[in-house]
Specification:
- This protein is α/β, with parallel strands linked by helices and 425 residues long.
- It is 39% helix and 13% strand.
- It contains 14 helices and 13 strands.
- The strands form 3 sheets. The chain has a 6-stranded parallel sheet, sandwiched between helices.
- α4 packs parallel to α5.
- The chain is elongated and about 75 Å long.
């Protein structure tokens, strides 16, 4: 059995999840951070992180961390942590391709006694049904005899400088009781908040996937309430503030549900549920409702423009924000794109402005080119779509100044008061 004193970790995937983990482990034990993108390795070697999750100072402090795109550099490692993305495809089905490819790569360097831990979000059973067979096939080794596995779901919150990898309690698990104990010990090297050792890998997988499914369903409920209250002419935020005075009322707010977790994870669970013959009702209903919110926002905007006698076709609309949440550059699965696409269906000219987002990445991912500056008095409508600090600091007057004398201001994130905006969700 592997000992802590022998530990040499490989982190597979240096994105929002993998890099913070690699940096923290790299302060304690030898770590090789592996990524297939040479540009990412070069960037980190220079001491820079474009995701802004880790500062240059933190990168310098990780003195035992090295970076590589070469599998040869992983041959000396004995504890592999997989942090690659697990997206959905165009049919909203799980896309395990990155996970299978990562397992294939590890299989080429896997040796007897090694442990492979997965952090990527999956459906219950995926580690043992998809990843382990790939490791066995490529390595020629036998699971739970020659090598072992674990699952410890990521709990990274992009852009959050308060809840970091070290102070968020971590779920751990292993393929045998002994391995579960060892995996738990390894994570306790860096997790100050402590760990929760799950009974099995499947329990850990299920716990992860329901964390975000629960949030998704709750937001869907609030979104539906917003639709109802809007039809009744009642301000949703005022209702939620009033209801929030009760001690056990949950503080969810309506909005677009994007990002790599909440808008994706439920589809992993529903995929598995349907595979075993159960058709989920509430989860899929919540997904349908949340996925339709971008179109609803545009419908409300168009109605607001018509009421003010603003010509919709050919109008110029500014969307403030593209990232999936405030104060971070992450545009993965951002639902702001739904608003942009829907506006273009009305033949509206759309400018997207987001000081956090890399323009080249936006062009590559969504085929849109964010503007680098905004012109005062140029827009028929302004949608405040993401609550970046820069937009909050502007205030209502400066945001209003971006519009023409007659325009519509839609505050999607309750940054402004009801009196300061024309429309709110």
């Amino acid at each position: 059995m592997l000992q802590l004193s022998e530990l040499k970790i490989a982190i597979i995937g240096l994105g929002y999840v993998g890099l913070p983990l690699a940096v923290e482990f790299g302060k304690k034990v030898p770590v090789v951070g592996f990524d297939i993108h040479q540009k990412r390795i070069e960037e980190l070697t220079r001491g820079q992180d474009h995701t802004l999750e880790v500062s240059p100072e933190e990168l310098k402090q990780s003195t035992h961390l090295s970076y590589s795109t070469s599998l040869d550099d992983l041959k000396s490692c004995n504890f592999f942590i997989v942090t690659v993305p697990t997206p959905i495809d165009q049919y909203k089905q799980p896309d395990l391709t990155p996970l299978v490819k990562a397992s294939h790569s590890i299989g080429q360097v896997l040796e007897k006694g090694d442990i492979v831990v997965y952090e990527s979000t999956v459906y219950p059973g995926a580690t043992e049904e998809v990843c382990i067979p790939e490791l066995e096939k490529i390595s020629g080794l036998k699971f739970n005899e020659d090598f072992f596995a674990g699952y410890s779901p990521e709990r990274i919150n992009p852009g959050d400088k308060l809840h970091r990898v070290t102070n968020i309690l971590k779920i751990t698990s292993g393929s045998t009781p002994e391995v579960a104990d060892f995996v738990d010990q390894v994570y306790n090297l860096i997790i100050e908040a402590g760990t929760h050792k799950a009974a099995t890998i499947k329990v850990a997988e299920a716990a992860k996937v329901i964390e975000n499914t629960q949030r998704d369903v709750n937001i869907a409920l609030i979104n539906e309430l917003a639709l109802i209250f809007n039809k009744m002419g009642i301000d949703t935020e005022a209702v939620l503030e009033a209801a929030g005075t009760k001690w056990n009322f949950l503080p969810f707010r309506p909005g677009l549900v994007g990002g790599h977790c909440i808008g994706v994870d439920p589809y992993y669970l529903t995929h598995k549920a349907q595979a075993i013959g159960y058709h989920p009702e509430i989860i899929l209903a919540g997904r349908r409702l949340n996925d339709g919110m971008g179109a609803y926002v545009v419908t409300q905007l168009v109605k607001g423009m018509i009421k003010k006698k603003i010509q919709v076709e050919g109008a110029k609309v500014l969307v403030l924000g593209l990232s999936f949440k405030e104060n971070c550059p992450d545009i993965r699965n951002t639902r702001i794109i739904d608003i942009v696409n829907e506006l273009q269906e009305y033949h509206v000219n759309v400018d997207v402005y987001d000081p956090w987002v890399d323009a080249a990445e936006a062009e590559h991912e969504y085929g849109i080119s964010p503007v680098q500056s905004v012109e005062k008095g140029a827009y028929d409508a302004v949608i405040l779509a993401v609550a970046h600090e820069q937009f909050k600091d502007m205030g209502a007057e400066a945001i209003r100044a971006l519009g023409k004398p007659e325009h519509v201001l839609y505050d999607l994130k309750y940054v402004l008061s009801q009196a300061e905006s024309d429309l709110r969700l």
